[in-house]
Amino acid sequence: MKISIITVSYNSAETIKDTLESVYNQTYDKIEYILIDGKSNDTTLQILESYESDFAKKGIEYKWISEKDNGIYEAINKGIQLSTGDVIGILNSDDYYNDNDVVKDIATVFNQNDIDCIYGNLKYIDPLNKKVTRKWVSRDFEFGLFEKSWTPAHPTFYCKKESYIKHGLYRTDFKIAADVELMYRFLEKDRINSKFLNRPMVVMRQGGVSSSGLKSTYIITKEMRKAFKDNGGNFNLLKYLGYKILKVKEFIKI
């Protein structure tokens, strides 16, 4: 089973080495690594180029492109369309794998179960000292959880390519919540088979467009309301926001 990992970058020179190294150090030997850069003007491109020979020596299929795009979700879609793997996952350019066996464990779960996707747990770190500040511990999927503001941690979401072909790609008309919309569409509407892998998979630096205060919460809520409507679901604003407040307590603080 080949696993395609997609990283989207733009002026990511300060963090992308950690991302690249965590892919390079994976123990699984059937990896395709695709980087979609949005025409960076820092040293990101030089860093991407410097890893070409290392990945080639290890047998990892490594390819990258740099061109203007219309946002992160269009860039992810480009990566999916370029991918040739059986399973696809997204690793952000400021994130990295929790350990060297993550991709191997992902492949094992897919090989041992009749499933379309898996997801797991996530660690947040302080971007300055890299200390773990909280953990996102997920759970098995049940229908109706999205109405309660539940969602898998998207950086841990790995899905068969055939699901993208059958059920569609990321919506580019969403600013922040296209990842949640896609997982809602796949799991809740189209009912693909999922498996929760109860182990830390990805380490994420705190911050970013989807976790930056009241403005992002407003945009996410507005977009999720549209996602529910467009996919035939029921959206109760008070219920959604109430559970969203409670969800903060679900994170395990360190």
UniProtKB/TrEMBL annotation:
CDD domains: GT_2_WfgS_like (cd06433). Residues 4-142 form the Glycosyltransferase 2-like domain. InterPro entries: Glyco_trans_2-like, Nucleotide-diphossugar_trans. Belongs to the glycosyltransferase 2 family. This is Glycosyltransferase involved in cell wall biosynthesis. It comes from Virgibacillus litoralis.
